[in-house]
Design brief:
Radius of gyration: 20 Å
Helix content: 10-25%
Number of strands: 10
Distance between the termini: 70 Å
Length: about 130
């Protein structure tokens, strides 16, 4: 009986280890659509998006089309993230990304980490000129 229990525990442990080793976490560097690319080049412009309880510090952030731009998200209270659905892009706090936007337009983004009762109000825009 003890051998069967030990075998079962070892099997479950092996499954967890293999699942952890074989799984791929979401790669926030892969961006598809909307003409945006993670260039890996030095940024010639920088913007900082500051998030705090239920708001971003600006309603609109302006970026120049074709210019490598470093975008940094700073959470001033709690934990916040940014998702730009039209670009299939997510930003995590204090993990800057250098991106080049190839298509002009206005792209809405929102906080993608539930942060309280006003979470749904955390919306702003990136305007690519």
């Amino acid at each position: 009986m003890k051998k069967m229990l030990l075998l079962a525990v070892m099997t479950v442990a092996a499954i967890f280890i293999l699942a952890a080793c074989g799984s791929k976490s979401a790669d926030n560097n892969s961006i598809t659509g909307a003409g945006v690319e993670n260039t890996g080049t030095a940024a010639s412009a920088k913007i900082t998006i500051k998030a705090k309880r239920f708001e971003f510090d600006q309603p609109v952030y302006k970026i120049k089309k074709g210019e490598p731009t470093e975008i940094t998200l700073v959470s001033e209270d709690g934990v916040h993230g940014v998702e730009i659905p039209d670009m299939n892009l997510k930003l995590d706090a204090d993990k800057p990304k250098v991106l080049t936007f190839d298509n002009a337009g206005t792209y809405e983004f929102h906080c993608d980490i539930m942060c309280g009762s006003g979470h749904s109000q955390m919306v702003a825009k990136i305007e690519v000129e």
